[in-house]
Amino acid sequence: MSTAIPVQVIRPRxxxxxxxxxxxxxxxxxxxxKELMRDQGLHTVCEEAHCPNIGECWHHGTATFMILGDxxxxxxxxxxxxxxxxxxxxxxxxxxxxxxxxxxxxxxxxVTSVDxxxxxDGGAAIFAETIRLTREARPSCRIEVxxxxxxxxxxxxxxxxxxxxxxxxxxxxxxxxLYRLARPGGRYPRTLELLDRARRYAPHVATKSGIMxxxxxxxxxxxxxxxxxHEAGVGILTIGQYLxxxxxxxxxxxxxxxxxxxxxRITAVNIGFxxxxxxxxxxxxxxxxxxxxxxxxxxxQPSAGARASA
Length: 310
Description:
The protein is of the alpha/beta class and 310 residues long. The chain is 39% helix and 12% strand.
């Protein structure tokens, strides 16, 4: 008796439009930075998340360090980072990040992480130590942290804020209707609560968030999400095109045209965000230094008191 062999159906991937095509990385500075990361045993979200801007950013000597290992405890449908059970905790990682920032003479650094739901504080103490050691190693360097939601634990958020980052970023990623599909480990209300808590607890720290479009959201849903983020006190906003990392990840529902991104930018500016970075290739850390400078020049982030009285 013959045994039927199941046929694996591979969905065709839509061809990327011309405005999403970028040159393959390979500049001398890119190669130098890559070697430095390997020598220090460090991870970057630039590599792990297959960021299309890695060539440009690394050429200019900027990178987003990914701490707490390279295995995430969550399995978001859009993310290329490996998920599973992380292996322990590297207590020396903050010192290596600080040394890398010092040796690269960076003026601005972004520190992010995988989700570590296996840790009681979600990794907040490692974030805080990375901030402190980086300040000691490179006092002139400004520090942005892109944090997970810490499962809603307020003390973990305060631990990070007490270390004194210049910018506190937590990505919203998508509209609330698509959270169960794209971000099953996250909760939309929890994201808004984290951003609101950050602004109220440390009003001197700029808050930032970002979303992707192209997952199947409706235009009105995007606008409503932007209004929610502004109400939560977000000052810096990023909007970019979702790009599926592989055939096993969520497909791209559609590619937004650059003109549509400009319409979204204008909409967000009219809602009242201090600075909006919006475009097909925009990611949270893309031109992060310029984003923060532009925001500080406008200084339009709503204060907790003003928002509470509104």
